[in-house]
Amino acid sequence: MSGLTTSALNAEAIIEFRGAGYRLPDGQQLLSNISFIVQRGETLVLLGRSGAGKTTALRLINRLVDPTEGEVLIEGRRTLDWDAVALRRHVGYVIQETGLFPHYTVEKNIALVPRLAGWPDLQIRTRVQDLLGLVGLDPQVFLKRYPHELSGGQRQRVGVARALAVNPPILLMDEPFGALDPLTRAEIRAEFQELQRQLQKTIVMVTHDTSEALLLGSRIALMEAGDLKGIYSPREFLHSNEPVAAAYSEQLRKLEDFERRQ
Amino acid sequence: MNLTQFFSQHSSEILQATLEHVWLVGATMLLAVAIGVPLGIVVARKPWLSKPILGSANVAETIPSLALLGFLLPLPWLGDRADRLTITALTLYALLPIIRNTAAGIAGVDPAVREAARGMGMTSRQILFQVELPLSISTILAGVRVATVLTIGIATIAAAVGAGGLGEFIFRGLAMVNNQLILAGAIPAAILALGADAVLSVMERTLRPAR
Amino acid sequence: MTSVRMGRCIAALLMAALALAACGPKRGETIVVGSKNFPEQALLGEILAQHIERRTHLRVERRFYLAGSYICHQALLAGRIDTYVEYTGTALTAILHDPIEGDSAAVFDKVKQEYMQRFAFEVMPSLGFNNTFAMVIRGEDARRLHISTLTEVAQYAPHWRAGFGYEFMERPDGYPGLARVYGLQFAAPPRILDLGLLYRALLDKQVDFVAGNSTDGLLAARDLVILQDDKHYFPPYEAVPIVRKDVVDRYPEVRDAIDELAGKISDKEMQKMNYAVAGEGRDVADVAREFLHTAGLD
């Protein structure tokens, strides 16, 4: 299997999984013996079916769960040695349902972590406006709006802005565009690519959408039933003979064939 | 003498009794909220505790109020002063709606919001005070409202054990077979209950966050 | 609604609640007189109230028909009333939870001392009568047989029928103790009658010996005789006004007014007043006013 742990020896491993596993109290094994690294500045996509363990793996990174076997290292330190709260403020987190606080304005939502970190008010206000501009929302219009007044796409943009508020080096995204309609989804994806180029963050993204994975990922980690099947560059993935990877590629090709025949 | 004349003649007594009543209810509600809301939070956090905690509150609720007052009467420190006794019994009654509503309110917070809050690095306490409680305040207030109206009603019965308040007019009126006296207690009590209900309803509605 | 704003709302509400609760209405110069819930108590309360009104410049509020000793006591403790009339025997057993005794002076002293010590209540001198249990027979029998005491009755008891209320039958300090102390044995077990029917049954000769209260109204209005309790079996229930110490300290004129009533009401006077209210249906305030006038207290 190509693309595993020892890819580029010079690249800095900002996140490392060493034989990490997670078992539920009732005995169900959600994740088994996962080992890989994430290099600084890359976008690693965790691709797989529902139940593959991708979200669990993601949540091991910001200690929303702790591994029952093995360990996870962030910036060279075991997650268990990090203070959980400090770690989470160091890592941006975007989820599918966004989870914006309904009782906070857009401004207060984005300002959350800076406020917790004790930033001065003026600095927070400036930062919020900059972030809104970054995600393509006019601050004049959106600062004082409430989440229930926004469309799905607008909400997700605010979610991303919120995650970037204190400029964390790492960004975790769990199917961030999954709840959006296809048109909005495509729009946001394109904007996100631009954002990736600008910000150069280390991103770990969970998705079950093949085209999204190919488009946004610098590498793709394929997961199935709690196991890591392999890590591929997009090109390697498309041409891989590994059965699961091949199945995904086949699906994609079928869609392209359909389009061509129209 | 018609009823209006009776009321205006005895206005200071009626006001006095009303204030006694308000004091009983106010002290009870403060205690009940101080005990009930934290218990509700505990139940929301640890669902396995819901049975013992809600179960006990339910038992207290089920005992008829006069019987509960009667149980507490012979106890050494409690039974010596009618107000201690009454506030204890009333608090026990007020607990169930408050605990239940607090637990429901907090458990009803959108899990995505809680997940996002945790993921962003908020401590449990920060999540409780900045997210969970503000989002459940409307539900909690609904419980407080029910408890308050309940307490105003049961406080009238407490006059039977010497607690004073508006119930005393009612009992005296019954003993003297004097309807005006009975109404002097019943009408203000009803107004208090309706008033409290209205005020708290308005607060409930204003504080309900738009979804 | 931010947590800060919510916190402020709650704080405001709390303060309003506390402010409301803390301010009792300014009582000003008012004395509140309480009473229990039967006519004799209302009469005594009214006498107290009217006399205080007449002798002092203070306003008097009446809070009568409170249902029982415990409630009156609680009201006095909480300051909701300033005074009411209690019976020494009841104070001793029901409030102080001390064992009952027969000697009226001893009981009075004990009650006076403990009430001041435990509650800061002043026990004023007796109003003059003793509302204790009364063993009653028809006047004609008393005269014919020349009996005036319970000891003398013992020899006739086997020929007589007795009628008692349910409570008197059951209380250990009621019939059981009485029968034991005076050696009473009646022809048949005593009939249990409703309190209201006892005297009628006695007058209709359905029974010959009943237990009533010494201040019952009918005793003044009919040819009935109370037998003397020469062995002092029944505990004393002297009527004494109880007042909060802080009230008499603040208004010494109240103590003076109540003092004037000491010893002014005899058993017979009380019976007559009770009959006027319960038997003739007269207004309590009128009967009280009449009494004060007749006693030269107005």
Measured between the Cα atoms of the first and last residue of chain B, the distance is 56 Å
Order of helical and strand elements of chain A: EEEHEEHEHHHHHEHEHEEHH
- The total count of helices of chain A amounts to 11
Instruction: Name the chain pair whose interface involves the most residues.
Output: B-C, 35 and 29 residues
Succession of helices and strands of chain B: HHHHHHHHH
What is the multimeric organization of the chains shown? heterotrimer
What is the overall silhouette of chain A?
A: globular
- Unreliable stretches covering 5 or more consecutive residues of chain A: 1-10
- Contiguous uncertain segments of 5+ residues of chain B: none
Number of strands of chain B: 0
Structural class of chain B: mainly alpha
Count of beta strands of chain A? 10
Shape of chain B: elongated
| Rg of chain B | 20 Å
Major β-sheet strand ordering of chain A? 6-7-8-3-9-10
Q: Using only CA atoms, what is the Rg of chain A? A: 19 Å
Largest sheet of chain A: 6 strands, mixed
Measured by DSSP, the beta-strand proportion of chain B falls in under 5%
Helix content of chain A: 25-40%
Mean pLDDT level of chain A: 91
Task: Give an account of the 3D structure.
The complex is a heterotrimer of chains A (262), B (211) and C (298). In chain A, strand 7 (170-174), helix 8 (182-199) and strand 8 (202-207) form a beta-alpha-beta unit. Mean pLDDT of chain A is 91; it is low at 1-10. Chain A is 40% helix and 24% strand. Chain A has 262 residues and is an alpha/beta fold. Helices cover 82% and strands 0% of the residues of chain B. Chain C is of the alpha/beta class. In chain C, helix 2 (39-55) packs across helix 13 and helix 2 crosses helix 15. Helices cover 48% and strands 16% of the residues of chain C. Chain C is elongated, with a radius of gyration of 23 Å. In chain C, helix 2 (39-55) links the parallel strand 1 (30-36) and strand 2 (59-66). Chain C is built from 15 helices and ten strands. The mean pLDDT of chain C is 89. Chains in contact: A-B, B-C. The B-C interface holds B 12-13, 15-16, 19-20, 22-23, 26-27, 29-30, 81-83, 129-130, 133-134, 137, 159-164, 168, 171-172, 175-176, 203, 206-207, 209 and C 1-3, 6, 9, 14, 17-18, 20-21, 23-25, 37, 61, 63-67, 70-75, 77-78, 80.
